Each structure stands twice: as structure tokens, then as C-alpha cells.
TrEMBL record:
The chain crosses the membrane at residues 12-32, 294-313, 319-336, 348-373. Coiled coil: none annotated. Gene3D superfamilies: Spore Coat Polysaccharide Biosynthesis Protein SpsA, Chain A. Belongs to the glycosyltransferase 2 family. This is Glycosyltransferase. Keywords: Glycosyltransferase, Membrane, Transferase, Transmembrane, Transmembrane helix. PANTHER family: POLY-BETA-1,6-N-ACETYL-D-GLUCOSAMINE SYNTHASE. It comes from the Bacteria. Residues 55-188 form the Glycosyltransferase 2-like domain. It comes from Mucilaginibacter dorajii. Pfam families: Glycos_transf_2.
Amino acid sequence: MPDYYWSLETYIQIVLFVLFQLCFIVQLYYLVSNHSRLSGYKPVEELPQVLIPVSVIISARNEAQNLQENLPFILEQNYPDFEVVVINDCSYDRSDEVLEDLQRQYSRLKVVTITEHDRFKTGKKFALTLGIKASKNEYLLFTDADCKPASVNWIARMAANFGNSAQIVLGYSPYYKTNKFISRFTRFETLKTAMNYLSCALKGEPYMGIGRNLAYTKTLFFSAKGFASHMHILSGDDDLFVNQHATANNTAVEIHPEAFTYTAAKTSWASYFRQKKRHMSVGKLYRKRDRVMLSFDAVSGFLFYILLALCLVLRYEPLLALGLWLFRLIAQVIIYNKNFKKLDGKDLIWYLPFFDFIYYMYLTVFGLIGAFIKTTQWK
């Protein structure tokens, strides 16, 4: 082979390795700057004594079984002053019968019914807006029909964060543990997402929340004109609302285990992909700084693994490349181990090397899908 060919090959190898090191540095920055915030955070252990009136809001479409199983655990919360507002959104299963039966048992339950219209198709944001208008209290706590509070103190734990200037409370909602691979990965992906948004909130840079466990004030909702700015987008009743209105001063975090709300993970890859496609489609509407922050993490993580593979295949500094991967992995284990324990996922630390790789591949794929494909139904 001519000498100039090898010089070009060497040049390409050096460029790739430099890019690999840059990705390593960016990834290390996110670990130390963001995720370590959550690892050092300790929730308040003592059960607070809170008396503010709370309205729990649940939008449900064809959720008869989930309402029957989970709603009693919400209606029987250890809290002195609360109501539960369920919006029965165009259901055609037994939801109306289940809700009527529960209303006879629990005076705290209020039902708002939406009927299907041939010309006007409603979505979750419309349903939630009606529920918020029907609620009687200033402090609103949101969850889904398929969610079950971890304890009878869920409302108390979440409500305790309102005070001073707090208008938004970000909670956490893990998935139940099963032995299925899809369940384990879903839990891992949920943990990574939670570490991101909770750590950023603790850092004073909140950018999203999840509707399975989220609270904010009615005053904030109406002063922000509700979901008006993104009513045309299917998703985003939770993360877009928080992204647009959360600040360092008006946002609090609650991660006590008693404040979790649990739900079941998707049981098929098809349903999981539909859910993720819907969630990822709203990312392009985040504030610019948040899009940049999330993109740098996703792209650097994706390229980190791609460039690592290229360094090994091309045999350019393979030992050093593996050393950087191992250093990052050890740093992840140290920080993630604390976070996973806090968020009920300590068993997943053993899957970290494999799931972390899959996670960054998934972020890239669904980021592209969400950017170009529109979803047309929420349920």
C-alpha cells in the first residue's frame, strides 16, 4: 500500500479517537453536574402535617378495570381535606358503571362525563381542562387511572411541598417489577428519565414532569391559559406545561417512597413503541436551552458507543478506549447506585452496561421518529 493511504487512515483514526474522548468528557459532565444532584438529595422522612385542600384529577378513557382496582386506594388516602375528580372521557366500556358504584361508596368522588361528538374529537388536555374547572380546590394533584399510590400518605407527601413560592411539585412514578425483559428496560428508561428531570429541578433548571405524579396550582394553570399554547399537540399535558412554566423558584421535588405512584409497564413492544413515539413527539417544543441540553446528552451518549466500537474495530488505542469506557461505567455505578436505590430500581444496576447502550440507541431512534411522525390519538 502507498504511504499516503496509511497516513489518511491514521488521520481518520486520530479524528475518531478525539471525538470519542470529547463524547466521554460530555458524558462525564452530565454524570457529575446533573445526576449527582439527585444522589446527594435526601427527602424529608417525617410525615408532614398539611391541611391545604387538594383536588386529585384523573382523566380516564376506557379504564373500567383500572378505576375499579386503583381508585379506592386514592379515595382512602390519609388526608383530611381532598376530593377526587375523575373525567370519564368518551368511554364505551363499563367505566360509567364502575364510577357510579364508587360514588355511592365515597362522597369525595366527583365525576365529569364527556360524550363522543361526531365532528369534535376530544383529547386528554381537553378532558383535564374540564376536570380542573370542575375542581373546587386551589391545589391540584394529577395521576392516571392505571396508577396506584405507594401509600396512604401520597397526597400528604406531595401537598407538603406547596408553600413559600412553590407552585409546581414534581413527583415520581415507577413501574411494577416483573421478570420480563421489556419490563426491566422500561423501568431502566424511566429511571434514567427521572434522574434527568429530577436532578435538573434540584439544580434549579426544571424542564419536565410526568402526569402520573404531578401537582400544581389552579392559579398557575389559569394564569398560563392552561394548555392553550399546545392544545393542538396530542401529548404534553404534563411535560410541555412544566417546561413552559417551571422555574427555579416555583418548582419543588418529592421523591419519598411513600409519594410514589406505581403503574404496570407495557407488555408488548408494539404498545411500548406507540407510547414512546407519542412522548418523544413533544420534545421539539421544549425551550431551546432544554432541547440543547437533552440533545447533547443523547448525541454524545450515542456517539460514545459508536466511536468506541470503531476504535476497537480499527484497533486504534483499543486499551485506552476500553479504559475510558470502564472509567465512565464505574462513575455511573457509583452515582446510579444511590439514585436507583432512591427510585426503587436497585436491582437494575446489574443491567447497566447493556441497558445504557440500548437507552442511547433508543433515544436517537425515537428522537428522529418523534421529530417527523405525528401521533393522532392519546388512548
